[in-house]
Amino acid sequence: MNAIGNDIRKFERLFAALLSESGDSGGLAKLALAVRWPLPETVQVVALTGKHHGLPKFPPGVVIGIQRDIVCLILPNSELLPGALQVLAGRRVAVGPVVMRREAGRSLMWTCRLLELTSGGSPGVVHVSDYLTELLVQQDDFLIRAMAARWLNPLSRLTQKQRRWMSETLLALLGSDNATAAARSLNIHVQTLHYRKRQIEKLFGSVLDQPCARLEIVLALKGRKLLAERGDGIDAGS
To answer: Residue 112, CB half-sphere, CA atoms under 13 Å: how many?
Structure first.
């Protein structure tokens, strides 16, 4: 095997070791030393669409590997991220948070899930930190349906069209600081927002004043929307 092929194999072993590290870093340190890779305390992972053949040249220090047929990068320094993203223009890219090295495998798992979750989107960059709720609620369809059944039953009295815009309005209201911000996020007039808000208050009553209920309603709305987008036999406004 030539020197280039040998280095590739070493980096493949380093990539696998970074994802499976369980606490004893002795073997990992040897693999890092073999390819002259400074072993960091923290790492940042990136997952991207497209084939691994013909990848652009990344900044020095970026470790490349394949996980579940997804091209993955492990960055030893978050300062390398802008340069890595610059050469990935035109691809769908998911970026994980900066984590301790031993959490690289778990971070990559969620970063790959985000890439799959947003697979219908246009090329661009999405960050795990911006999709924490969506990633959380997609873990169990049964629990999503249970929360929807518990909290969203008042919407069942409406037509399908009404349920859809009421759901969107309720989610915007619960996720915004004020009515103006909620109306802006929905691209509607603030007076329209106030009208919908009054209708929602009639449907749900005092339950919207309960912090725990508000949280579960947000999770139920977001979870049901995800199920609808996946085509799991449920409508986002049903």
So the answer is: 17
What is the pLDDT averaged over residues 76-92? 89
DSSP tally for the chain: helices H, then strands E: 10, 6
C-alpha span between 200 and 28 (Å, rounded): 56
User: Structure pTM?
Assistant: 0.74
Q: What is the largest CA-CA distance in the chain?
A: 74
* Residue 140 banded pLDDT, cuts 50, 70, 90: confident
Dig out the tokens for 43 from the structure. 């790492």
Q: How far apart are CA 28 and CA 16, in angstroms?
A: 10
Q: Which of 43, 27, 51, 30 is nearest to 106 (CA)?
A: 43
Q: Which amino acid is at 114?
A: L
CA distances from 122 to 53, 116, 126, 159 (A): 21, 13, 11, 32
Spatial separation of the C-alpha atoms in residues 84 and 64, rounded to whole Å: 11
